[in-house]
């Protein structure tokens, strides 16, 4: 048995933010039925295509373990099917542009009337207010959520991160909202609306930067490199390069081979508790007792010198050797792993975080499995569905349509054309 067995999700999501959320729920055992526009489906099926004729990795890596039905929800027959789906699902998830669900004729009031127990979960770019009607993509969310203004180096422009904190981050937030609402429904018997705005999700992940904004009003941020460099602070939390956020200063340092390998670096943290070990390692045992270096506070104005000295040691060995030497000494370090190294990482494969999946059209491909491990709910990562692969199965087995009725719906155009069964089998 899986954790969410018996929970049925009407998955009206597309692109990345919503699909991340419903993929997680599918991994935990929910029956996720992805409703897609006939003929084309989720736009990501055809984006960044690497194998002509096959769904892209963009789509296949975000839609594992789901079923797919084709349905034009704007035709009368499509609305009829959608209504039956709403009646028989526990959760409806969508991340359409603001107002799209309403224009389709299914605002929350209608959805709730059709099924008072249903949870309607939505992702939008912004919460209520001035920008609520705007469409938003990942990088816009990173910018309006405060992340970009605090990422990058002080003398450069704002930078967005490769981690999809706007899309996948908000999908995670929404998934938590959904299971929380399911839990509350156990007590109340009622569904509710769950909303997660991408701006809010990004800001939640940037919480420590808003902390620093307030600390700045009381004086300079002494753990930022710019403090030691004597550069005055302006009135907003600055970009801090690779400084580590807390009271344990860290930097990215060169390792052997950095001249040719863009990832021959290590993140090195000068944790206070490990200082004596660090001093011994880098050949500066005198820094243990020298009052200019002995305490974290004393070192703050000297971080450039401290890290340059540590780097003259890390430069002599490769990044994995740094890890092997530092770990037993309790010094927190981490090699900069490339995506190639991650793809080949034995530990990640053994834990099921990196998995290979057989897809009926594209063949074997690599994907990220479920990053959350439940000891009593094993995850079996299955391939993403082909467009409309389960239309007939869902309509007949779940919604109880007869073959004639399915034929009527198909002739109306609500289900798209005849599906390519050969590809699905
Ligand atoms: N049947 C009928 N119509 C369908 C349909 C279906 N199965 N699936 C989608 N549509 C329609 C929608 O109703 C909408 O119609 P409308 O414009 O007449 O209201 C239309 O398709 C386009 O949907 P929309 O969501 O506006 O797509 P888009 O490509 O224009 O915008 C986003 C994409 C991501 C910018 C937008 O959806 C958005 O801002 N979403 C919220 C924030 C978000 O999740 N962003 C990150 C995405 S990773």
Report what the structure shows.
The protein has 425 residues and is an alpha/beta fold. The protein folds into two domains: 8-205 and 344-423, Crotonobetainyl-coa:carnitine coa-transferase, domain 1 (Rossmann fold), CATH 3.40.50; 240-331, formyl-coa transferase, domain 3 (2-Layer Sandwich), CATH 3.30.1540.10. Helix content is 36%, strand content 13%. The chain has 19 helices and eleven strands. The chain has helices spanning 17-27, 57-60, 76-88, 100-103, 108-114, 138-144, 167-188, 198-205, 207-216, 225-228, 275-281, 296-299, 303-314, 319-326, 339-343, 346-350, 391-398, 403-412, 421-424; strands at residues 8-12, 31-36, 66-70, 91-94, 119-124, 193-197, 250-254, 265-269, 333-335, 354-359, 363-368. A hairpin with a 3-residue loop joins strand 10 (354-359) and strand 11. Coenzyme A binds at residues 15-18, 35-37, 71-74, 95-97, 100, 103-104, 123-125, 135-137, 167. Residues 15-18, 35-37, 71-74, 95-97, 100, 103-104, 123-125, 135-137, 167 line the site of coenzyme A.
Q: What is the topology?
A:
Layout: E1 8-12, H1 17-27, E2 31-36, H2 57-60, E3 66-70, H3 76-88, E4 91-94, H4 100-103, H5 108-114, E5 119-124, H6 138-144, H7 167-188, E6 193-197, H8 198-205, H9 207-216, H10 225-228, E7 250-254, E8 265-269, H11 275-281, H12 296-299, H13 303-314, H14 319-326, E9 333-335, H15 339-343, H16 346-350, E10 354-359, E11 363-368, H17 391-398, H18 403-412, H19 421-424
Parallel strand pairs: 1-2, 1-4, 2-3, 4-5, 5-6
Antiparallel strand pairs: 7-8, 8-9, 10-11
Helix pairs in contact: 1-7, 6-8, 7-8
This protein binds coenzyme A.
Coenzyme A binds next to helix 1, strand 2, helix 4 and strand 5.
């Amino acid at each position: 048995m899986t954790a969410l067995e018996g929970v049925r999700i009407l998955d009206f999501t597309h692109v990345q933010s919503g699909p991340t959320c419903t993929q997680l729920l599918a991994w935990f055992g929910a029956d996720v039925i992805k409703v897609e526009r006939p003929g084309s489906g989720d736009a990501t099926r055809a984006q960044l295509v690497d194998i002509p004729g096959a769904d892209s990795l963009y789509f296949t890596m975000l839609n594992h373990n789901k079923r797919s039905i084709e349905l034009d929800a704007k035709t009368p027959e499509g609305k009829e099917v959608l209504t039956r789906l709403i009646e028989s699902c526990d959760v409806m998830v969508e991340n359409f542009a603001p107002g799209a669900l309403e224009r389709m004729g299914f605002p929350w009031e209608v959805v709730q009337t059709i099924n008072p127990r249903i949870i309607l979960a939505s992702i939008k770019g912004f919460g209520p207010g001035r920008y609520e009607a705007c469409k938003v993509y990942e990088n816009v969310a990173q910018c309006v959520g405060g992340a970009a203004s605090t990422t990058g180096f002080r003398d450069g422009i704002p930078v967005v991160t490769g981690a999809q904190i706007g899309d996948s981050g908000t999908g995670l937030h929404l998934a938590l909202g959904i299971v929380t609402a399911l839990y509350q429904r156990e007590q109340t018997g009622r569904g509710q609306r769950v909303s997660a705005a991408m701006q809010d999700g990004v800001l939640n992940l940037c919480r420590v930067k808003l902390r620093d904004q307030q600390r700045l009003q009381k004086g300079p941020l002494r753990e930022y490199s710019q403090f030691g460099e004597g550069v005055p602070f302006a009135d907003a939390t600055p970009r801090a390069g690779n400084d580590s956020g807390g009271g344990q200063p860290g930097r990215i340092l060169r390792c052997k081979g950095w001249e040719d390998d863009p990832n021959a670096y290590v993140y090195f943290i000068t944790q206070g508790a490990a200082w004596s070990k660090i001093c011994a390692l880098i050949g500066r045992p005198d820094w243990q007792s020298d009052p200019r270096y002995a305490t974290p506070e004393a070192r703050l104005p000297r971080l450039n010198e401290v890290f340059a000295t540590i780097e003259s040691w890390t430069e002599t060995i490769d990044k994995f050797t740094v890890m092997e030497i530092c770990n037993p000494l309790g010094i927190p370090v981490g090699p900069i792993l490339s995506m190639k190294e991650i793809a080949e990482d034995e530990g990640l494969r053994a834990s099921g975080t990196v998995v290979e999946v057989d897809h009926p059209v594209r063949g074997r491909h690599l994907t990220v499995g479920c990053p959350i491990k439940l000891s009593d709910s094993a995850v079996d990562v299955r391939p993403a569905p082909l467009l409309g692969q389960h239309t007939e199965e869902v309509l007949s087995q779940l919604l109880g349509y007869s073959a004639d009725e399915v034929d009527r719906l198909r002739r109306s155009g609500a289900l798209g054309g005849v599906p390519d069964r050969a590809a699905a089998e």
